Structures are given as structure tokens and as C-alpha cells.
């Protein structure tokens, strides 16, 4: 009689880790008499093949299916081959051998033919036949890897390819599939390409001159000449300095330009690159393409050598005439040892300074101030003349006033009265005529502010009227009109007494005598 119908516990913990155990009793508490092996152990025993079995052996489970595009992915068979191509209408070759590589892709049984690129072959090379399944015959069959072997011919689209060899992977794969490979053959090269690789035969008698000996003896030995190119006879031409290098190792010449600071030229150092320069040409035909072909020994009769350069003589290099005026110390020693030349007197090629042209100032035309008109002769954009700022600040609003009358043969002018104002800040004189009723003359400004030169002074070095020249009874000539000073205001006397060092004693004394009666009358009134 069963009273418990639960399943036995199969999960247990040991040392903090959970593990699974097999049940020992079943439902109702009945003890189970079964194998105590796990399912993994049972599977291992079922797949194990014992050495001695009794009864029918158990078969191992079949392996997983792998498709061809996965099993043969990126596995390619490579064969080396060539084909022969006819070359019509050529006297140098009748056929051409073109090497190719034949690739067989195992994943989809497709093939491609690639031709390696040969430099300067003149033939479009690269992909010869794109990747595809190639037809084998007219019945619709396609090439299979079983049809490929070394030492056989295959025809693809009318062209016959000869397979001569394959790589190691292809050989291993075909042998593993039970295919017996033929012996590899030697690759055939194009006879015309091999002929071009051979140096052409030259029937030239070797020279006794040893270039290697010259190079070893004169390596890093250079002759240096200092030259000048005079191009002043052309429009905008100039005299430019150059350095001519002659390399003794290979008889080459180089011309380098000497740049000066702020010369306005781009910093290109080399005018003529290092090369052999021809001195005398042979007679060239009119159809000789000199613009595309380099000059060789067949066109030149004589090249420039070290003996063609000398100090103090002109040398024409590629159409330009250079005058050599000096050289360095090594060049002097070389010419002395080689040619016995000791005359190396340097030539002075400095351009003489041009004669200074004296600037002649034109005569003053009478318009404006003399200083302002003179500025037009000094610059294109005239600048205002500089002023004495200190003097203007010290004598600001200081004006000396004098009463003058005009000296004239006209009796009407002798009755006219004027006020002469001398501005101490700018040394300018202005004349004002007070209006008089019923005189018939309009009063007002007679002369604006200007500097008045003394009679007899020239425009090159003018002498202007100063406060010391303005005294009682003095005659002032203003642009052809004469004025006589007859009176002055009290500020003139005060200014003279305050600045005695600027006025002669006679001028101050005459001014005091003039104001003495007036001062006495004032003192009398004060009493």
C-alpha cells in the first residue's frame, strides 16, 4: 500500500556547489535497481567500438553534412601555361608566346585565365578570360578539375593553351584524389622579348681614355668661376651675377645664380643644371627634332672642357655670354699645375655709380606760401610744412598792433589809415583799414594773414619781417605798396620790455621815446 506519490529529490548541494544525483527510489518509495551511469557516459559507451564485440556492433552516428561552397571555399587550383599567337606583317617576329595562369575554383567549378603584366609590352594584359564555367565541347560539357593535368593541351574559346606546371597545393590535391600527374615541363619564353633583353652589338673601337680613373682621381674636385651676365642691352635687362661650377670628375658644367637680398626674383638657385655643355655643333639637318631628343656625341663636334674657361674672358653657354671676372683659390692652383697659367688678375665688374643729378627748384610763381609751393618739388603728394609747435603755444593770441599810413603819390591814399597786426605765433602780418565816412573808399580787410619778405631778398633764401623791424617811422614794403609806422599800442612796449633779449636796444629806446609824452600825460592825470 503506497502512501507517498512524490518524486525523489535529485538536486543536492556540497561545499556550497549544486550538483545533480541520480534517484535511488521511485514513486511510492520503491527502491530502483538500475544502472548508476550518467547519460553522457552511456552515450560514450554506445559509440565506443570495442576490440572484441559479441553480437551486432553499434554504428557511429554520421558526421554533419558540409556543402561544397563551404568545404572548398577559397581553395583554388593554379596551373601555369602559355599559348602561341601569330604576328602577321612583321619582319622581326612571326609568332608571340604569351604566358598565362589558369585558375580553377573548387567551390563552383569555375575557371579564369590571367596573363601577367609585362612592362613595355604594348599589349593589354591582365584578365584574359573572366571567371566562369568554361565549355569543354559542343555537347554542353564543362571543364572539371579531373580534366586538368600537366603536359596537356586544352582548348578554350578557340585558343589552345599548353599546361606546363602547377603549384604545390594543386599537386597535393590532385594526388589525394587519385590522379597521376605528368612530369612538369619547362616554360617557354617569348623569343622577341628575350632578344630585346640582349644588349645590342656595338662596333665601336674602345677609347684609351679611362673614365673610371678620371672619376677616382677628380671626385669631389670642382672648379669655381665667378661670372656676370650683362643683359642691359635688352629692354628691362640687368647685370646678374652667377657661379659656374666645372666638375672635373665627369666634365660637366653647372651654372648657379647668386641672389641678393630684396632683388625681386624667385629663389631658383640653378640656371643650368649639371650637364655636359656642347661647344661646337655639327651641321644639323632641318628635320632634326632637337626639341624632343637629347644632344649626343653624334651631334656635337666639341664639348666644353676646363681649358675653355679663363678669368677675364667671356664664355658663351647655351646662347648666354658670361664674363668670368674671378675664381677661387683651388681653381688658380689647378690651372697653374695643369696648364701653367699664373695670370689670374680679378676684374672689377662693379657698376659705376650714376652721376648725381642736381635738383633744380623752379622759381616761385607767387601763388600761396613759399613753403607750401616748395613741397610740390620734393614729393608727388606734398606734405604741409612743419610748424614750430612750441612757439605757437607760447605766443598764442599774442598780437602786436601798429598804426600805419600808406606812402603814395596819390593824395587820396595819403589820407587813408591802416592797422598792421603782427601775429607772434606764426610771424604773419595782416592789414586792416578802418572804414571812414564819406571817404569814397570801402574799408575792411586790406591784406590777409601772410608772411612778408623784405625787399631785396630772393626766393631761395627769403628774409621775412620780424618784430624787431617794426619800429616807429620804419617803412614796410608790402607787395609793392609802402607803409610807414606812425604809432603802436601799449602792448607793443610792454612786450618789448618783457623780451629785451629779442629786440635791439635802439628799437626799445625809440619806442620808449614815442610813448614818453603819452605816459607823462597819464601820470599828470593821475595826480
UniProtKB/TrEMBL annotation:
PROSITE patterns: DM10 (PS51336)
A Gene Ontology biological process term: mitotic spindle organization
A Pfam family matched in the record: DM10_dom
Coiled coil regions in record: none
Keyword Cytoplasm: yes
A GO cellular component entry from the record: mitotic spindle
Listed GO MF terms: alpha-tubulin binding
Superkingdom per UniProt: Eukaryota
InterPro entries: DM10_dom (IPR006602), EFHC1/EFHC2/EFHB (IPR040193)
Domain DM10 positions: 73-178, 219-339, 396-500
SMART domains referenced in this protein's UniProt entry, alphabetically: DM10 (SM00676)
Name of the molecule in the record: EF-hand domain containing 1
Organism classification: Eukaryota, Metazoa, Chordata, Craniata, Vertebrata
Gene name of this polypeptide: EFHC1
